[in-house]
């Protein structure tokens, strides 16, 4: 796919890795729509990119469908969707917990369910809504109509103690990638997933250097957190390369999480 003239939706685009990708996409000649929480600075970011902001909550599936439809209508099409929205137990009002503690306390099932809804179910909903719009595109010379990228985590493969819900949710995103790509292959729509390690975004962007060095000491190289633009480089490469489909790509500096 070519960026020039393409239309893209960035879910979680007000900050971090998604914002960095939106900036690169705009620089390449694409049109950008930013979808993020109403309390975010999405309006400011969208304005800086010559696009429009659509306030949303990914767990409100009906509203997400409408926001995506509104963005597609305003831009006149859709060729690319990147979704980085998600989070662990704390994102849904819980705390990191073992499956069962020594005192017999169980991991709350409602928290587990909410984490899966926030990450996996929301990603599925965004993908189906986006693919429905992409399916009406006129294919390019290679038969492509669109590209969707979801965000997993290396915790999907070696989750740490207390990450059982997050690991399950992110693992589900990686697991559905190939099947979804196969489902959508006859429509010329590709589906990929990026699994980052620790990146300097959100809460991790402000932690002390000593702490971040300790968290990344086991990486092969470089021994630091990733920069949002390094994620963006990979996302743009996926969009532009028709051979990237149905896989989860780790962007992790060779990091492998220890149990804790």
Could you give the order of the helices and strands?
EHEHEHEHEHHEHHE
Fraction of residues in helices? 40-55%
Q: Output the radius of gyration.
A: 18 Å
Indicate the CATH topology of the domain at 79-251: Rossmann fold
Uncertain runs with pLDDT below 50, 5 residues or more? none
Task: Give the biggest sheet.
Answer: 7 strands, parallel
By DSSP (H or I, 4+ residues per run), the number of helices equals: 8
Going by CATH, the homologous superfamily of the domain at 79-251 would be NAD(P)-binding Rossmann-like Domain
Named at the architecture level, the CATH assignment of the domain at 79-251 is 3-Layer(aba) Sandwich
| End-to-end gap | 41 Å
The counted number of beta strands is: 7
Overall mean confidence score, pLDDT: 96
Beta-strand share of residues: 5-15%
- From the helix content, strand content and strand pairing, which structural class follows? alpha/beta
- How is the largest sheet built, in terms of strand order? 3-2-1-4-5-6-7
Shape: globular
Model description:
The protein is of the alpha/beta class and 260 residues long. The protein contains eight helices and seven strands. The protein has helices at 16-27, 42-48, 61-75, 109-134, 155-158, 164-184, 209-215, 228-240; strands spanning 7-11, 31-36, 52-55, 80-83, 146-151, 189-196, 248-251. Strand 1 (7-11), helix 1 (16-27) and strand 2 (31-36) form a beta-alpha-beta unit. The N and C termini lie far apart (41 Å).
